[in-house]
Design a protein that fits this description.
Porin; 18 strands; 3 helices; 16-stranded antiparallel β-sheet; single chain; two-stranded antiparallel ribbon; about 50% strand
C-alpha cells in the first residue's frame, strides 16, 4: 500500500458527532437587530456565510519494505466560488510525507469550478523521491520478479476547460513529467537479478528510459460532468475524453500520442440515496513512438500521479503490477448507508493491459475486488474517509485508507 492515512483520533470523531449549536432557551430575550453586513473585500468576497471553506487536516503514516516508516500530513480544503448554490463545490489536496529511508513526496491537486461553473480547472503539481517494486512489462508479469526501483519525479498536469453548454466543458490540457536519478541495483524479491536490469539487458527497456528524461505534451479535453457532487456522487453521469500529443516541439524526449476515455454512471437504488450504484469504464491507449515505462498505462499507479494514472483502479493489485501501451478496465461499487456516520461498500473490477489493441483477450482479464467502510467526516460536503481492503490477480492484496470515494 502506498498511502495509508493514520486513522482519525477517536476524540476527533466524537467532537464531530457532538459539535452542534445549542438552541437558546424559549424565555431568552429577543436578539438585537443585527447591523448591516459590511461589504466583503479580498478573497472573502467569494464565499457566502453558509459556504465558508473547510480545511480538513489529516496525519499520514505508513510503513513498507521499500520506504520504511513514513510520516506526513494532508490538508483537504473544500469551498464554493460565488453565491449560487447550483455551482458545485471545488476541492484541493495537499499531501507531504518523509520516510525513514530518506524518501519524500509532495503533492498538490485541485478540482475547481469557478463562479457559475463558467470554467473548470483540473490540475496537479507533484514531486516524488521514492522507491517501489517494478514487476516488468505486459499482462503476465510474475510476483517473484518484483524488484526495487527508485527515481525522482516531477509532474505538472493542468486542464483548462470553459463551459460550452450546461455540464459540458471543452478546452486543452498540458502535461509535463521529469524523471531523474533512476536506481535499480537491489536484487529482486526472491534474491534473483533486478527485473529492471533484466529488461534492459533483454531490450525491453532502452538505455534512455534508464536515464530518465522529460515527457511534455498538450492536447484537447472534453468533459461532460452531470454529477450532483464530485466528492461522493449520488446520481449523474460523467464522461471525460482527452488526448495528449508529446513531442520534441514541446521539449519532450519522447514522441507519442495518448487517448483516454473515462465514463462513469451513478444512481440510487431502491428509491433512496441509502444505496448507491457506481460504475466506471476507463480506457487508455497509446500510438506513435516509444512510451517510457513510467508513462505506460498501468493498474493502480499511485506514483504516476493522482490524476493521470488512477491509483483507484483495480484496488487489490499492487501499483503498476501490470503495465503496457494499452489498457481497459471496468469497475463497479455498491455504497450502502449503515448507521450514524458509517457506510459500507463492496466493489469489483476487471481489466487488462496489452501492447496492441488486438492483443486484448478474454483469457487475459485480471480480477480485483473487496469490501470497505466509510466515515462521513464532513456531511455537508459529502467528504468521506475511506478504508478498503482488496484482493486481486497476481497474488496481491492491499489496504487503502484515503479521503474521498475511489471514483
Amino acid at each position: 500500500m502506498r498511502f495509508l492515512y493514520l486513522p482519525l483520533a477517536l476524540c476527533t470523531l466524537a467532537r464531530l458527532g457532538v459539535a452542534q449549536v445549542t438552541p437558546a432557551p424559549s424565555d431568552s430575550p429577543a436578539p438585537a437587530t443585527p447591523a448591516p453586513d459590511k461589504p466583503k473585500s479580498g478573497f472573502a468576497r467569494f464565499f457566502e456565510p453558509s459556504d465558508k471553506p473547510s480545511f480538513i487536516p489529516f496525519p499520514v503514516i505508513f510503513s513498507q519494505q521499500e520506504t520504511g516508516l513514513a510520516v506526513g500530513a494532508s490538508i483537504l480544503p473544500v469551498w464554493r466560488f460565488g453565491s449560487d448554490t447550483t455551482t458545485r463545490k471545488s476541492n484541493a489536496r495537499f499531501v507531504g510525507w518523509f520516510s525513514q529511508k530518506g524518501q519524500t513526496s509532495l503533492q498538490a491537486t485541485h478540482n475547481v469550478f469557478t463562479a457559475g461553473e463558467k470554467l473548470y480547472l483540473l490540475g496537479e503539481l507533484s514531486y516524488y523521491d521514492v522507491n517501489f517494486l517494478y514487476y516488468g512489462l505486459g499482462n503476465d508479469t510474475r510476483k517473484d520478479d518484483g524488484s526495487e526501483l527508485g527515481y525522482k519525479l516531477i509532474i505538472f498536469n493542468q486542464r483548462v476547460m470553459p463551459r460550452v453548454a450546461p455540464n459540458l466543458f471543452a478546452g486543452i490540457q498540458y502535461r509535463f513529467t521529469g524523471l531523474r536519478d533512476v536506481t535499480y541495483t537491489e536484487p529482486g524479491e526472491e534474491g534473483g537479478p533486478n527485473k529492471f536490469q533484466t529488461d534492459l539487458n533483454d531490450g525491453l527497456l532502452t538505455a534512455r528510459e534508464a536515464e530518465g528524461g522529460n515527457t511534455s505534451g498538450f492536447g484537447p479535453a472534453i468533459l461532460y460532468d452531470g454529477r450532483d457532487n464530485v466528492l461522493a456522487t449520488y446520481r449523474g453521469q460523467y464522461l471525460h475524453l482527452h488526448g495528449l500529443f508529446a513531442g520534441k516541439y514541446m521539449g519532450s524526449d519522447y514522441t507519442f500520442s495518448r487517448f483516454q476515455i473515462d465514463a462513469r454512471h451513478f444512481q440510487p437504488l431502491f428509491g433512496s440515496t441509502n444505496t448507491i450504484l457506481a460504475v466506471q469504464y476507463l480506457g487508455q491507449f497509446h500510438t506513435g513512438g516509444l512510451v517510457p515505462f513510467r508513462e505506460l498505462s498501468a493498474f493502480g499507479a499511485d506514483l504516476g500521479g493522482s490524476i493521470y494514472n488512477y491509483a483507484t483502479l483495480m484496488r487489490g493489485i499492487y501499483e503498476a503490477r501490470f503495465r503496457d501501451r494499452q489498457m481497459m478496465t471496468f469497475q463497479g461499487e455498491i455504497r450502502q448507508k449503515l448507521f450514524w456516520r458509517f457506510d459500507g461498500a463492496v466493489f469489483g473490477a476487471v481489466g487488462q493491459v496489452a501492447n496492441q489493441f488486438n492483443d486484448f483477450s478474454t483469457d487475459g482479464i485480471k480480477l480485483a475486488g473487496g469490501v470497505g467502510g466509510r466515515f462521513r467526516f464532513n456531511r455537508r460536503d459529502r467528504l468521506n474517509v475511506r478504508l478498503d481492503y482488496g484482493v486481486g490477480s497476481g497474488g496481491n492484496s492491499g489496504v487503502y485508507f484515503s479521503v474521498g470515494e475511489a471514483f
